[in-house]
User: What shape does this take?
Amino acid sequence: MQGNLQEIDICSILQLIELGQRTGVLLVEAYSYGVPQRLGICSQGNYRHKSWYIFFDNGYITYASDGDSSLSRLSDYLRRYRIQVNQEEIQLKDLASLNVPEYSYLWSLLEENLLNPTQAGHIIHCLVYETLFDLLILTQGQFIFTLDSPLEPQLTHLNVTAIISKVTRQVQQWKQLYSYIQSPEQCPVLADIAQLKVALPAVTMNKLQQSADGKTSLRQLARYLNSDILTVAQAIYPYVEEGLVKIASSSVDKVCNFSEKSNLGKKPRGRIVCIDNHISIGETVKSILAPQGYEAIALNNPLEALSLVFELQPDLILCDIAMTKLNGYDICAMLRNSTDFRQVPIVVLSAEEIFMDRLRAKILGANDYLIKPFGHNELVMVVEKYLCSKL
Assistant: This one.
């Protein structure tokens, strides 16, 4: 099984592997601009190649890697056990050839009784969670699943449906922070120490001063605190919103700035039509896309919209699934039956992440699936994913 993430999403791939009770390795490869969720944005800059590996045994996840052989993320988790990673002390043998050096190192620590199975199992669960969190934000890339013998020895078997359900909910909540926080790799730094000392207990302030140094990422903070990235981001978000804590500049900012500056004084970059019963959604789309140089048109009557799109000839269509009189599935199917709209990108909007809805939309010809409420950067990312080739 192999393909493109524009054709099938990560959730569907994982569920197919689970349903088929497959044993092997899923490899996902993509180019990212600093952070995974920026994939697909057409801008100038240094893109970097990234790989992720997920290992399965009879449909269960046994381990997941971010493709980094430096053992840096494992080192962060081992800090709480007062263990320092030293690659020179460990000879990475059999498992190293399978792109799992950190897994090999973990087992070496078990064999030396520096970790117990419960601790090692917890670390593996965290490593899997991190990997899936990044993958569920991806919208572009290539994947291939290879049948292979299971990874041995094994510490844990994680249920795909259970962990995907948890990570999906957290990704949706994470996207609501996009106005200030876009990447787990961004680094918080204290902006107003005096006000923070007044607002926070001394113990909390001391921890912030130690960690929010502009060099330690949110993801590293989550590892050090034995927490998940969403909890850490949500805890720091109010202070970022008030300007007491700043998020250090990253390549995300460069991408956004390029997108905005490149449109000054130029004709619209493309025409986007949003079909949604809720007027607020259409207004949100316009407020987000207009500053980016796009012409955004909101239509809240699906019956009228179906005839108007033929006059408007949009470059991309956003269409809500759950509408009265005529739903998004019907509109998508009708448009795809017209020669005028067989190649126009259609992104369906939904208030819920439901696998069968996503699959049905894909079958009827939708290019993508966007969960409401969506953030500023998330919407821009999806639009530029399909329209950047036309710029």
